[in-house]
Amino acid sequence: MLDGYQREINYLRVSVTDRCNLRCVYCMPAGGVAAARHEDILTLEEIEQVIRAAADVGVRKIRFTGGEPLVRKGLPGLVKNIANIRAIDDIALTTNGILLPDFGEELKAAGLKRVNISLDTLKPERFREITRLGALEDVWKGIRAALRLNLTPVKINTVVMRGINDDEIIDMARLTLEMPLHVRFIELMPIGTQNPWVAGRYISDEEVMEVITKHLGPMQEKKVTGSGPACSFQLPGALGTIGFITALSNHFCHQCNRLRLTSMGSLRSCLYAEKETDLKGPLRKGAGREELRKLLIKAINLKPEKHKLMEGWRDSERVMSQIGG
């Protein structure tokens, strides 16, 4: 389906939980956030109802997010049900990777095609500082599991932060020379209660690219499977690619094809949108597929021409993990 700006909306990001087993500094305050009550988040059956209606209006790709989606019980069963929807041709997952060794095989068998794994540093002590919890080696176990299970292309999401991990740009880029990994450098975005922490730590992806080409040489453009916003390149002889997601310096709103379903049952047409379409209320009042289709069309028609990211985060009550990464 086309929105009001003639963009084809075919991608739904589904947050299955607001809970996470890490506390990344740019995502959550040190004490975390109060988790939603179990009865307040969508059931797996309700999520499936929404996705089936979304498929009716043109959604073809589903990405499960959180919080950390792998802490949600029953996720493999949901993936299996979604994989059986004929119109859905791509099911992906964004995860910190820690629980992939436990659930990866079951998810692959259920129909999961590929994963994005968040990794902001290659240094164990720094990993602990950035995430406040967990161990770097556990993420590497997840990455190795994803490669072994052929959940490819395996993409690594790296948020670059000045004074935090910008000295590792070259080391992260070198991973693509050594392993079939697709490292995507993501510009730090001002989101939620962590806005003050973000100040002064932003680095444009143009600067990141300059660092890489200076030390590792020129790159050629390279297409990578997926409908995400990254512009991808490849170093000579590399097994993987290097991508750049420029949400601030060179926004990609003109080609945005996505909607976001929060774990609490609201549909957002843009991460920075102030308006949401409530689906949980109608679902719990017995809304059928046709009513859900109409609500989805309403949300698509509310999609703004571009985000207001430069104006700062306007949602004073929620952080990224509560909306869906």
CATH class membership: Alpha Beta
Judged by helices, strands and strand pairing, the structural class is: alpha/beta
Oligomer: single chain
Largest sheet: 12 strands, mixed
Beta-strand share of residues: 15-25%
| CA(first)-CA(last) distance | 23 Å
Count of discrete alpha- or pi-helical segments spanning 4 or more residues: 11
CATH fold-type name = TIM Barrel
Strand order of the largest sheet: 7-8-9-6-5-4-3-2-1-10-11-12
The structural domain count equals 1
Gyration radius, rounded: 19 Å
CATH architecture assignment name: Alpha-Beta Barrel
Would you report the number of β strands?
12
The CATH homology group name? Aldolase class I
Helix content: 25-40%
Can you tell me the overall shape?
globular
Q: Kindly report the average pLDDT value.
A: 90
> What sequence of helices (H) and strands (E) makes up the elements?
EHEHEHEHHEHEHHEEEEEEHHH
Unreliable stretches: none
Catalytic activity: GTP + AH2 + S-adenosyl-L-methionine = (8S)-3',8-cyclo-7,8-dihydroguanosine 5'-triphosphate + 5'-deoxyadenosine + L-methionine + A + H(+)
Subunit structure: Monomer and homodimer.
Pathway: Cofactor biosynthesis; molybdopterin biosynthesis
Binding site for GTP: 13, 63, 94, 155, 258-260
